[in-house]
Amino acid sequence: MAKITYIEHNGTEHTVDVASGLTVMEGARDNNIPGIEADCGGACACSTCHAYIDADWFRKLPGVEAMEEDMLDFAWNPEPGKSRLTCQIKVTDDLDGLVVRLPEKQI
Ligand code: FES
């Protein structure tokens, strides 16, 4: 279980508990947090679960796999060193306190 804070582009914050084993995308979806669309359901095939991760947390996360790297090219306004596809981040206890900033829009 990890407490994750999702911050919408307009500044609205949502802090929720997300069970380990889910993805950061599923945590947003299951809590009806706006800003993550996840059109492909988590298959790393749409890039509509794009979000920005603060630098300190970005370094702690497992690395970006090649498939995610490719799909990030299709995300809206990706930023190197910040952008991740949230369906590719598995929640563990170690992610307690994670802050996820949602982009102005998805593609
Ligand atoms: Fe489609 Fe993440 S939900 S790439």
Automatic annotation (TrEMBL):
- Which SUPFAM superfamilies does this chain map to? 2Fe-2S ferredoxin-like
> What range(s) does the 2Fe-2S ferredoxin-type domain occupy?
2-106
Q: Name one GO molecular function term.
A: metal ion binding
Q: Signal sequence span per UniProt?
A: none
Task: Write the record's keywords in alphabetical order, separated by commas.
Answer: 2Fe-2S, Iron, Iron-sulfur, Metal-binding
Please verify whether the record's keywords include Metal-binding.
Answer: yes
One GO BP on record is: P450-containing electron transport chain
Q: Which CDD domains match?
A: fer2
The lineage's top-level taxon is Bacteria
User: Could you say which cofactors this protein requires?
Assistant: [2Fe-2S] cluster
- InterPro entries documented for this protein: 2Fe-2S_ferredoxin-like_sf, 2Fe-2S_ferredoxin-type, Adrenodoxin-like, Adrenodoxin_Fe-S_BS, Beta-grasp_dom_sf
Q: Which family does it belong to?
A: Belongs to the adrenodoxin/putidaredoxin family.
Name recorded for this polypeptide: Peptide ABC transporter substrate-binding protein
Protein source organism = Actibacterium pelagium
